[in-house]
Specification:
Rossmann fold; six-stranded mixed beta sheet; globular; 17 helices; 21% strand
Length: 480
């Protein structure tokens, strides 16, 4: 839903659009891209009122939308994706392949992008695919580029590279509508910011006219207290990892995690962070080394033994591997505890519902009821359903891979408070995150990985984001 929203965009302006999930951001950009039809109001582009906006007309007018789920064909080359539907052809209609690849390479050189037109999309990482989308927009002579959560799967280093690319678009008078839940990015890249809440415009400001806290209050409608973990005295070690390795994934990983402690793992995409989490969860095997949980070696145990002993993984892609989106809330919450709610071959549906309602209340999950399908929940609420699944089982060690990726600021703080409550109860957490604010606020100790091994172990209270980033990208730092 969207009601009486005014929005203006100048040539070469980077205008951020922010708001919680359900605020109307997606509806707004789908109207601008022609995917939705407005009921009333005017869209004026370069002084001309546009009456019948559809995706084809929007592209002809220079409005290009880059969605979070990138619109690329993985089986084609980079050049084919950039020039798709605009391939240079001869008189007989045959594509001139050399000319196609040369044109694509010209665009990459103009933007100073390390891309090769003949490479396949399937072989590129998330950051490189994002660059291909921007190159497509430039080839189509974009005047307005709409970016929907462009950094959701990027690391800090890749985000800096993306920002440089956006600044180059700005220099060419291309305007950018930038949508993100990460408010530090808004203050880093945007000239202006507009806030939507409940389908209405709350206000818009030049970046220098509003503070971070004021922006959060405008989005949520009330003051938000940010969560920080407290320093803790060391309790018993719950997890001891001794020199584990897996060929091609990681090598010589050591760590000790105590009850009541959060260890943050930082590093670039490809540094081996997720692979380590998969090994600690028992999903992937290790070639060498020991994983000791509650004093017992478990590295040779099957995956189901890890779960039985109290280890769970909260994966990065909650929709693909963490939840069954077509199943309802109650069904997802009970997935790990089917034996508890079963009598022989039959599910005790009333008990399942009671357990689900308990965790919906505990975690403040916003839903129409426990029979609602998970796919209709916001990202933050889906994440909380996944947490509820393991909380109902009674876990002691939570391995969390990007726990707040793609959730709004209010849900992010709710998830952080849940994490803090868990460690206060004596649980332990290993958290992988590309969000440096989250890393600094929500971890007691930071392990930095680069080239699939640990390059630094830092006390969070005695380090900086700059030092962590320097280790992560392989630069030497001066230590005092």
């Amino acid at each position: 839903m969207l009601s009486d929203v005014d929005f203006d965009l100048k040539p070469g302006e980077i205008h951020a659009l922010v708001g919680e999930n359900g605020a109307g951001k997606s509806t707004f950009i789908k109207i601008l891209s022609g995917a939705y039809t407005k009921n009333r109001g005017d869209i004026i582009i370069e002084g001309n009122k546009v009456e019948h906006l559809n995706p084809h007309v929007a592209q002809d007018l220079g409005i290009i939308t880059i969605y979070q789920d990138r619109n690329l064909i993985s089986g084609l080359t980079v050049g084919e994706n950039v020039l798709i539907a605009n391939e240079p052809k001869g008189k007989t209609g045959i594509i001139k392949w050399k000319k196609l690849y040369d044109r694509a390479d010209e665009i990459f050189n103009l933007l100073n992008l390390d891309l090769r037109a003949r490479d396949r999309i399937a072989d590129l990482g998330a950051a490189e695919q994002q660059m291909v989308e921007i190159a497509k927009a430039l080839y189509k002579k974009a005047k307005v580029v709409i970016m929907d959560e462009p950094t959701a799967s990027l690391t800090r280093f890749e985000i800096d590279h993306l920002f440089n690319l956006i600044k180059r678009l700005k220099e060419q008078d291309v305007s950018v509508i930038y949508i993100s839940h990460r408010l530090d990015e808004v203050f880093s890249i945007a000239d202006k910011v507009t806030v939507l809440r409940d389908g209405k415009k709350v206000g818009n400001w030049k970046i220098g006219e509003i503070t971070h806290d004021s922006l959060v209050k405008a989005m949520v409608g009330e003051e938000v207290r940010f969560t920080f973990v407290d320093s803790v005295e060391k309790q018993d070690a719950v997890l001891e990892v001794e020199n584990i390795s897996r060929a091609g994934a990681f090598s010589n990983i050591d760590m000790t995690l105590h009850r009541g402690e959060i260890i943050g793992i930082a590093g670039m995409v490809g540094s081996g962070r997720t692979e380590v989490a998969l090994a600690l969860a028992g999903i992937e095997r290790v070639d060498d080394g020991k994983i000791i949980f509650k004093g017992e070696e478990i590295q040779d145990k099957p995956f189901n033994e890890y779960i039985k002993r109290g280890i769970c993984l909260i994966p990065e892609d909650r929709d693909l591997v963490g939840l069954i989106s077509l199943m309802n809330v109650a069904g997802n919450i009970s997935l790990a505890s089917l034996k508890k709610i079963s009598r022989g071959p039959l599910l005790r549906l009333l008990l399942e519902r009671q357990i689900a309602e308990k965790y919906v209340n505990i975690l403040n999950i916003t839903t129409q009821g426990v029979t609602q399908k998970v796919k209709f929940l916001s990202g933050g609420n889906r994440q909380k359903v996944m947490l509820a699944k393991w909380l109902s089982f009674g876990m002691d060690l939570f391995l969390m891979d990007e726990p707040t990726q793609g959730v709004d600021v209010g849900a992010r703080e709710e998830i952080h408070r849940i994490m803090k409550d868990l460690v206060n109860e004596g649980k332990a957490i290993v958290m992988i995150t590309s969000d440096f604010d989250e890393l600094m606020n929500m971890s007691h100790k930071i392990i930095v990985m680069s080239k699939r091994q640990i390059v630094a172990v830092l006390n969070t209270s005695q380090t900086t984001q700059e030092e962590v980033l320097s280790f992560a990208i392989g630069k030497s730092v001066e230590t005092g």
